[in-house]
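S1.2 Input.
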Amino acid sequence: MKLKTKLGYFMKINKILLFLIFFLGLSLRFFHLGQIPAILNRDEAALAYNAHLIATSGQDEWQVSWPLTFKSFGDYKLPGYPYLLAFLFKFLPENDFVTRLPSALAGSCLIIVAFFFARDILKVKERSALLMALLVAITPVFFFYSRIAFEANVALFLFVLGLYFLLKDKANFVLASSLI
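S1.3 Output.
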C-alpha cells in the first residue's frame, strides 16, 4: 500500500510540473504578443491582409476567389494560415495579437505534445519527458517562431500530433493521416 501512495504522489508531482512547464511556455509565447516584435514583418502583414480580404470578400489581393495558394511578393504562401486567420477575423479584432495567435497557440500546445510523444512513443521516463517539454518551452527557436505569424509553426504542431497518433495506436491511423 505504501508503494501505491508513493507512485500516486510522484504522478501528482509530475502533473504539476507539466502544468508549470506549460504555463512557462505559454507566458513566454503570449507576453506582449501584439507588441513584441513591435510591428508585423512583411510575411505576417501579407498573411493578415489576405486573411482580411478572404474574410470580407472571399478573394485574395489579386482578386482570385478562394485561392489554394496565395501569390505574394516573390513567393507563394500556403493557404492554411490565411484561412485560419480569416476565420478568427470573423470573431476577433484584426490586430497584431490575433494575427500571431494561431502560431502562439500551436507553439504552446507543442509543449504538451512533446511530453506525451517522449513518454509514449520514445518510451522515456516521465522525468525525461518533462525535460523534453521544458526544452520545447524554453528553447529560443521554439518560442521565437511561436511569437510571429509563421505557418510552419502550426504545421509542426499538427505534424508532431499526427505522428504521435500514428505511432501510438494503429486504431488512430485515420485521425493521424488527416493531421499529417
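S1.4 Remarks. The mean pLDDT is 88.
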